[in-house]
Design brief:
The complex is a heterodimer.
Chain A lengths: L1 E2 L3 E3 L4 E10 L14 E2 L10 H20 L8 E5 L6 H10 L3 E3 L6 H14 L5 E8 L1 H8 L15 E2 L2 E9 L7 E8 L14 H20 L8 E4 L3 H14 L9 E3 L15 E2 L1 H17 L5 E9 L3 H5 L6 E11 L4
Helix pairs in contact in A: 1-2, 5-6
Chain B lengths: L6 H13 L5 H29 L8 H17 L3 H8 L1 H4 L2 H14 L5 H8 L4 H25 L1
Helix pairs in contact in B: 2-3, 3-6, 6-7
Classes of the chains: A alpha/beta, B mainly alpha.
Amino acid sequence: MLKGKQSWQFENKPAILVSSSVAGPFEGKGKIANEFDIVYDELWMKEDSFEKAHRLLVEDAIQTIFTKSNKTQGDIQFLIAGDLINLMTPTNFAASTHQIPYLGIYNACATSMEGLAMASFIVNSGGAQHIITGASSHNAAAERQFRYPTEYGGQKPPTAQWTVTGAGFGLIGQSNPQMKNQPVVASSTIGRVIDMGLTDPFNMGGAMAPAAAETIYTHFEDLQLAHDYYDAIFTGDLGEIGNEVAFELLAERGFHITREKFQDCGLMIYGDDQEVQSGGSGAGCSAFVLYSHILNEMKRGIYKRVLICATGALFSPLSFQQGETIPCIAHAVAIEMLGGAE
Amino acid sequence: MKKELKPEQKKYQELQQKHETKRPVLANCMKAFIVGGLICVIGQAVSLFYMYYFNFTEKTVGNPTVATMVFFSMLLTGFGIYDKLGQIGGAGSAVPVTGFGNAVISAAIEHKTEGFVLGVGGNIFKLAGAVIVWGVFSAFVVALIKTLWLMWI
């Protein structure tokens, strides 16, 4: 139900029943490599185009959910997913393969939490028994669409980010009150588009930070939570600069949490020796970190309550070349372990 | 064309600037000098090779040298090395003819998945096209100025 201005609280506690994650070669050498279900060792994944490889990521992630949950297409009512590629062909084609009634969604890199919020709302209000939701991105497919050909020797500034190759998907369904240790979606806040007039596509973190700060601040206002309610707050893909800026923006508005609690998914994937400039980004970034590492950490008991705030830059190569600024959005979803401290 | 910034946008951009990692301009210039210089040294060696072993003069050696350097650039692009060199070298690897070759060849490789005619053919000059168009046009303008200048005097 609606809480405050723009948040939903899910009183029926829809649960993330199972989750799956697929990663590319570069991510497979990073810090959380052993938490992914499938790791590909090359970008083509034996397909003849990067877009087909991208589709394979989505198909694999959904297939893994079937295997893990022991369910088939017929048990799932809806698929809510999206990616970054023109008109979303990778996800659309994967939806064609798996034949689940499908809602395609696009909010750039905030698609992951947009999907999770929508899926939770539908399950919470009895609109479905099971929904699969998630997001994905492929480094080379995104590079060639948003930037230059992959083999082009252009120099990237230190503010640039690395689009992750990966997909993260979750199966959302009714939680089982008997079962302990179940991650459930407690609430979510839908952000509004914020444009601070930045134009540099090589500094997306800086452009997206105000959207993240606004959504996080509104989330706490709407749900009237204490600032230290969550064990950790994860921004989606702000990178080093954006995460730092968002933290300062929140502090300016009188929002106080410890610095270590304010993390970024884009900074959790790669090792220090991997050259990704300011950190990872892409629709798959927050998705596959949440649906692997963060949920695993919750099951291990490290976190009881977390807030994930995925951020998206809503521009296109066309709008950028026409001199438009970069409008940004952020959606936040709160996940709690059922049976945790009240 | 630039839109007037609102006060809160201005205020935010100042705050953002504070955190933005600055481009290491001096270090980049030095790396560009070394990488670009090395490419030119190799080019010079190729020139000398053609002049020494074949029947080329200092005037005519340009063409085979450029062709050879672009060939090297093609190999490095195809094996995925030139983009890594570009991250280090910046302008040093972009300005020499090898950088031009890289721009053409990387686009050709990239668009092979859309077929040879519309994919490779239609996109091969996607990046280099701007260089050709404005290179030729500015050469025309300079030549025109020179011609008029000489007519005047």
